Automatic annotation (TrEMBL):
UniProt name for this protein: Succinate-semialdehyde dehydrogenase
Pfam families to which the protein is assigned, alphabetical: Aldedh (PF00171)
InterPro entries, per database record: Ald_DH/histidinol_DH, Ald_DH_C, Ald_DH_CS_CYS, Ald_DH_CS_GLU, Ald_DH_N, Aldehyde_DH_dom, Aldehyde_DH_Superfamily, Succ_semiAld_DH
Species: Lithocarpus litseifolius
Oligomer and partners: Homotetramer.
Keyword Mitochondrion: yes
Amino acid sequence: MSTLMRATGTFTKLLSPSSHSFSLRPSASLLTRHQMSTEVENVITRLKNSGLLRSQGLIAGKWVDAHDRKTIKVCNPATGEVIVDVPCMGQKETNDAISSAFEAFYSWSKLTATERSKYLRKWYDLLIAHKEDLGQLITLEQGKPLKESLGEVSYGAGFIEFSAEEAKRIYGDIIPATLPDRRLFVLKQPVGVVGAITPWNFPLAMITRKVGPALACGCTVVIKPSELTPLTALAAAELSLQAGIPPGVVNVVMGNAADIGDAILASTQVRKITFTGSTAVGKKLMAGAAGTVKRVSLELGGNAPCIVFDDADLDVAVKGALAAKFRNSGQTCVCANRVLVQEGIYEKFANAFSKAVQNLQVGDGFTEGVAQGPLINEAAVQKVESFIKDAISKGAKVLLGGKRHSLGMTFYEPTVIGDVKSEMLLSREEVFGPVAPLLLFKTEEEAIRLANDTNAGLAAYIFTNSIQRSWRVSEALEYGLVGINEGIISTEVAPFGGVKQSGLGREGSKYGLDEYLEMKYVCLGNMNSN
Ligand code: ADP
């Protein structure tokens, strides 16, 4: 059966409420199921027509099912509706994908940089040409507002464009020789087959920022997207094929995460693993990579401080903190996790910030004007609830929100909590939801101490009008990225990555390519012989 027919079958099922394999929470939903289905139906029809709704894995350029035909369901988090079934793959399919990438590596790595660059450029053009489709797919399976999804497509495609450009600038080196009859060179060569494991919060961008530089350097890849959001990955892979990127260069498997991860770790053909996700899984992968001494890049959890000093411009601070906290409903690893506010501006900031948060419209990501979609699943809501309960039990005050949204499902009210202290869970761990905890501090030294009092070290934000303070605090923060008077700073041209337990390595920028390159020293001797 063709993919389209499989998919169409699933869509017909989708429209019949009785076939849903989910249950709405009893408190759910002001949005009626009929309204939601019509919206989803339209989106799916458009995606089907564009050929981007793929529901199989990609191995050696072929769309394939799991060997035992097992499937998993991909759902729309805003409604719980099943969008489509995808294969539940494991060790066997992963090994097939690795073999395919290994085989393709030989010819892909032998292409000239210009040839690889052209393929990547074509892929970028197709991603942009299908921006609307991809944006809808992201909202459909991940839930974020369509405007944010479209932003993710531009951002994600940017990594492919940047990689196409940088592919031509992977220079080696000539080192002045220490002996007259020698010449010393450094070659940069691709590491080989790369295993890329990605999360659900940026279904496209977390893939392109790994695969773009990998392909530019001459590596081939086995991608394992999150089982919650595999459809965007599959659509991007489809476009890589349409761009002419040869079969086997890009492979996608999904299903049993631990089995797939183990197969990647065990393989001696996979020379590098690149991962974005939780710190717990990242540590497992790092330990597992020791068996074959694989190279490892990790983008793990953060605990971003957002520091508002007395001398900040209030409007800039409110706008920046809002963007840093509530993007993707608080579900990014660079989201402000703690808002540290100096005592002189605390009251004013808390009021203005709460007012701005109150204006954030919650709803289905396809609805015009919505700024906050659902959380990814029930577990995410329960985590938020437990963190808030912990904070309240220790003396924190709910200034706004603090409960599930009346829309039901996994919608949660944008929330501001005051009087938060550093021993509360809200300060210690990533809440990964639409909750802004406010902590009061008195001095710059105290702010730095509080900000650095964590094992994480990904993003930090500061708001101040003092140039000297901007430098002082940026230098003192133990973080990989610092935004000064800005809440959203990620871009493909700058290095992204953490220190401490937030990870290893950098993605994006010219530095990101180093992660996929080996350095080889070549010594040419006996220069005087013929
Ligand atoms: P999150 O909390 O963001 O879902 P996870 O670390 O659980 O973070 O997931 C990130 C990615 O890691 C997903 O693709 C997930 O399927 C994958 N993953 C989870 N557990 C494992 C594992 N044991 N081995 C390999 N990949 C895993």
